[in-house]
Write a structure and sequence with these properties.
The chain is an alpha/beta fold. It folds into 3 domains: about 1-95, Winged helix-like DNA-binding domain superfamily/Winged helix DNA-binding domain (Arc Repressor Mutant, subunit A); about 105-165, no CATH class; about 170-215, no CATH class. The chain has 8 helices and 9 strands. It has helices at about 1-5, 10-25, 30-35, 40-50, 70-95, 110-120, 135-140, 195-215, and strands at about 25, 55-60, 65, 125-130, 145-150, 160-165, 170-175, 180-185, 190-195. Strand 7 (about 170-175) and strand 8 form a beta hairpin. Helix 2 packs across helix 3 (about 30-35) and helix 2 (about 10-25) packs across helix 4. The longest helix is centred in the middle third of the chain and has 29 residues, at about 70-95.
Amino acid sequence: MCALRSFGLGEYEARILIALIAEGELTAKEIAELSAVPRTSVYEVVRGLMAKGLVQGSGKPMKFKTLPSDELMRLFSRKLRENIEFLKRELPRVESSRREEVVNIYTGEVALNALKEAIEAAKREIIVATSYLNTTIKELLASADCRVKIMAPNVGNLKFDVRGIEGVCHGMILIDDEAAIYLQQRENMWLMMGSGNFARFYREFLEAFIKQKSED
């Protein structure tokens, strides 16, 4: 029965088809008795099997029978080939569209170069939210060729879409296996918390920073 259901048949459809294959021609009453499908559901299920070309009905009282076994095998074989062809077409598309998560940690001059390359390659938008916009970041943002939004207290006379915000601070807090990233302005706080890969990334990031500072 599981094999038949793998071809898209419901449980009742599989039961009735097996009963017809085993016994040949059956009335609706006989189908209900042999397949354990409720008699009130037999006609609806049989009509579905007939629409799929697997069952035929004729006579008075109406009797139902399956196609010959060799024809059933051809139908199921064709369905199997169609499914395989579908998978051949679609699986590579799904695989190629998958975005793998890549996280790298840089320091020093390598970090500045990585950020510069990312900014220069940006196509849509760059958003900066910081409690202090230093000269280095300003110079890097000057090379952007897309829309840039900046939220900082010291925006100055920048050509970007800027918004001066006072009294803002932000940071991260690691709590056991969780990481909390917060942005606060006066009494208002925005907080993002997570565990798993999210927390592991920020722990590795902060630990790398702490290790470098201890070696300086």
